[in-house]
Structure prediction request, 1256 residues.
Amino acid sequence: MKTFKHFDAESVDHVLAILARYHGKTALMAGGTDLIGVLKSEILPEYPKIIINLKTIAGMNTIKMVDKECRIGATARLADIAASGLIQKIFPALAAAAESVGSPELRNMGTLGGNLCQDTRCWYYRYPDKMGGRIPCYRKGKGPCHAVKGENRYHAIIGGKKCYAVCPSDMAIALAALDARVKIIGPGGSRLVPILDFYNVLCTILNPDEMVTEVRIPEPGKNTVQAFYKNRPREAVDFAVVSVAVRLERTGDVCKDACIILGAVAPVPYRAVAAEEAVRGRRLHEIHAADAAKAAVKDARPLSQNAYKIEIAKTLVKRALLSF
Amino acid sequence: MNETYRFIGKGTPRKDGVDIVTGKARYIDDVRPGPMLHGKVLRSPFPHAEIKKIDTVKAKAAPGVRAVLTHADVPPWMTGMPRHVKVLDQRVRFVGDAVALVAADTLEQAVAALDLIKVVYEKLPAVFDMDAALAPGAPRLHDMFPGNVVSDFPAFGPNTLSKVVRGDVEKGFKDADFISEGTFGYENFANPLPIEPPGVIAQWEDEQRLTVWSGTQSASWHRWIMQSKMGFPDIRAITTQCGGSFGSKNYAPQCMFYAAALAKATGKAVKVSYTKDEHFGAFVLRLGSRFCGKIGMKKDGTVTALAGEWMVDNGAFSDMSQSQIAVGCGEAQLVINCENWNLSTKLVCTNRCPAGVIRGFGGQELESAFAPLLADVMTQAELDPVEFFKKNYVKPGGQYIWREGNLWTCRGKDYTKAMEKGAAEFKWKDKWKGWLKPTSAEGSQRTGVGVGIHGNADVGEDDSEAYIRLNADGTATIHASVSESGMGQRSSLCKMAAEILQLPLAKVHMTPPDTLVNPFDFGLVGSRGTYAVGSAVIDAAEDALKQLFGRAAPMLGVQSQDLETRDARIFVKGKPEQALTWSKAIGIMRSVTGYGEFKADYSVPNFLILFVEVEVDTDTGGIKLKKVTTATDAGRIIDPPSLHGQLFGALGSAGLDTAIFEETIIDKKSGHMLNMNLTDYKWRTFNELPEFNNIILETPFPTHRFKAIGIGEISTSPGPGAVLMAVSNALGKPLHEYPLTPDRILKACGKEKGNPK
Amino acid sequence: MIQTKNRQKKAITLTVNGNLHKLNIGDQPHEISPSYTLAQTLRETLGLTGTKVGCDQGACGSCTVIMDGKPVLSCMTLAIECHGSKITTIEGLADSITGKLHPVQDSFVKHSAFQCGFCTPGIIMASKSLLDRDPSPDPHHVKEALSGHYCRCISHYQVVEAVMDAADKGGQADE
Ligand SMILES: Cc1cc2nc3c(=O)[nH]c(=O)nc-3n(C[C@H](O)[C@H](O)[C@H](O)COP(=O)(O)OP(=O)(O)OC[C@H]3O[C@@H](n4cnc5c(N)ncnc54)[C@H](O)[C@@H]3O)c2cc1C
Ligand code: FES
Ligand code: FES
Prediction:
């Protein structure tokens, strides 16, 4: 790996000060499971001069309930989230998402903040520089999205425009269904942003002088059920081909309210509003689940090789709805 | 079978076991023969281009850089078959092809210098598949191969098998009850992908003497084959522990060229260790394979004729493709007993990462491409494939033309019983419901079964030599050029020697794989370790004992044949009190050396049948492997855990899973390999293991003293076709394409319709 | 305005297999660069080549070491961030004085739970860590715990047997 300067962050303020001082020449390092890969492959033309280690910030890795809200620190490890009794009990969908990431070792290292802010896995974007040169593309600021006319089996079927890379984060999908908000701190202070607003088609809304410190999830009502399903070629060390997270409020077997989020189908976590409407106020059974599944993909416009994702998305939505 | 052995057949700890589990075992990246420079390769951004200009001034001036080499200043060494691949060429032929070489004090410095080399290319049109390569007016990759067809087949002498022409196919088709015809491909270009990337360290001792260390499968190849490519320097080749090869690291001509060229230019030892990216994108892949032809069969499964063309895509250049075609043509005749053949072949160059030697060696590629055709004709005949294989696999007395063009008569064994035992364990008769019929169907879950076979007559391939030195201290040293890349063969050969010498296993050692101290051996290629190398070692051990007894007999006042030995003591048979230690017989300042050899014998084919049960999810297109059973006959098992390991290997090294998810994906416009990492290149994880059983019979074979044969190489080969059959049965539809990715499954289920309205 | 110490560490200490190492950060020989991974540092600087690097991208598990009680990937960990950590590598499992193998190592030898052996150090470290946390796992747990480990030779079946056998023995090595 090419070298850089390395600072251990002492506090959030310390991070902000470094970010401000070395504007745009820095990279934040949490678990490093994504960032180190990006650096080793030299996929980006700009190589950071300074790496800021966030793991040294005391107390930013906790998981706790405060005022009917669960607060998970940005450097909380995925393994700890998956194993947390609190999360398993109140947010089983989040525990399932955390458990589905990579491998046990990766979960021992990877953090929540890193998972949310990780870079895309598009194989054109990630092409290693030393194998003939990195591939410029729309996302890198130059050229087209090669997936459109190229190899696109894992790319977006919904909402792709200039770039068809999908958001790779599993945690984001579960968190979106759970109505979580991301706490962002920057020079202007802090703000809480709903997960769905945290992403834009090319990445996150974070400015180069900001960071994520925490995620807050409201405690769900008593009659809430939730599920996270992930389809992938391999049962470990694999990103989602399609994932779905569902949260339902029920009275008896009637669905009062629903939140259905699809992952890996779009550049951002995709809220399947039409699917939610298809189940809201209805009994959950095979027919309504199938209707919802169909509605979930009504906006899908697949590329040449990824129409199969539509079918998988439908299946996952159906299975998730029928799992309760 | 009634012979009892002290070591043979028992699971004994691998001799390198403790080193492996403690981290002491040294692989190529772990050895430090001395101070070394680090070599790196600048790689091409284009699939096909002419280098117009290279400016290396800045790179040469960079800190730590000791040499920068381009096509203009590398040695004139050549590899390829026939010779057509230079160390560096002015023309690049795939994305990732070598452009320039750098040696620097540190790896980081070498990498940094790559960025400073400025190259001007003239882009040339490129061809990424055989159709494009063969089209009229297609860009030519090599001047010496018009039409991009390699027609020179020097692999195994003047009659190297490049086609199978026997009998009268026209008549054969007339006699057939059923005929199937079509074109089917096995063009995944899967990667055997041993976990360890390849690496070579080279150092010139003087102008003519080169020492190379490598993490490869065969020290001999790095001397004997590489000498001929490099103007016959005196090469001393040493291999370290090898982190997996599966054929792909039999040798590593490019890595060795780079290291040796840089070592020559700098006068220092240079190490070239590939990154995983380079291992993926610029080392070796499986051959692309396509079969276009027809087969005729009678109702009872007798194959009456087979005709067609086998098209082979070897990527940018060919090193061993012709050898694989020759062996593949031979293997087809083992699997299909047929009097009338007209099988031709065509070897084609494309602008892809080159193909190399990989377990399966042509046969897997041909038979996997051929599987759908075989399935189709059996479907027509409603014939149980196990019955077909029983009828058709070569039996004692059966004949086949082998790789060098000679007709061989099988002296091996009938494998019918192995097939039946395997079928019984798998419960084939219960699970097989007929062609295109699922074993079970419940909701979206359907299960199906399939079966495949493979065999190779390479267990006695090529020549081997060995020495055994009996030492006065009651130890024995085997001198044989045997590298360890996972088969445990170094241990197994020690076992064979220990059995003959009746020494404790701990007292039998093998010299390190170093051509300076060992006689010739062709290496552990194919499945030749047990029979070919084993025979040489056994022969040497017997020769040594003969000499030992020759010395002891007069001392004990008896004839040689009256003697036996155990634990370094020599006894008169039946009179254990009349004894002599080895040390006395040998003399403490002496040793006894036996010599053994083996000459190629292609008359004893090995065999493997593989049954597979899959579960297909028709709503997600996912395939779950539920159960695998293999069955074979090994003659005599030398070391059970090692043999089982080889058979489990069916799931690795671009084997069975090439039918489910393994493939190399390239961009069809730019030629970039896109899935060159272990996240995007799919492999089987620990939590997705099927139930896996191996049925191994032990019918004595007419080979050597232990009546054993090797099997290791063939375990990956029957899987892909078997999976295709199983999934087709599960879905009730013939599926032809490898791998069976979810989109293909869903399409077959009529589910993937594209844009919903 | 807060005081920021925009300084890189000058040196780190690591306890590897019970031995304390002080490593200076820098670009001189014998110093480690801030970009050095833990794998690089163990292998190149400390000469502990038992830890293997297969993919160097976090996807094969061969570089697994135990850091502060947990299996982690040393290829995706910066050495400079390991300051003060306790690390166990494959070289640290056997008894350093008697050489007696750790029960998991012993069991791997007994079952020949390897072919080429390149994945083995990583798999053993993960297995050892599993048994430390859960002395009697079922085979399913073993497979889950090892799910990030690539083994191309397919030693999986023998590995699971070896780990189960070591667990059954309650951590006692065969004599
Ligand atoms: C083989 C492999 C398999 C994987 N499989 C999965 C998977 O199945 N699902 C999945 O979701 N992910 C997967 N990942 C991706 C990733 O490793 C994990 O998601 C992990 O959680 C990332 O966390 P980290 O702390 O290691 O991130 P880092 O690598 O430290 O950081 C990732 C990015 O986020 C930024 N960042 C980190 N923390 C913050 C913060 N607090 N504020 C602002 N920016 C921040 C960093 O600057 C960097 O750009 C996989 C990775 C690998 C290598
Ligand atoms: S080498 Fe670290 S995970 Fe592969
Ligand atoms: S034993 Fe070779 S990779 Fe596992």
Observations:
- Chain A touches chain C at residues 1-8, 10-11, 13-14, 17-18, 21, 29, 31-33, 36-37, 39-41, 51, 53, 55, 79, 102-106, 108-109, 235-237 (CB under 8 Å).
- The pocket of FE2/S2 (inorganic) cluster (ligand 3) is lined by residues B 195, 244, 486; C 114-119, 151-153, 155 (CB under 6 Å).
- Chain A is about 30% helix and 25% strand.
- The mean pLDDT of chain A is 96.
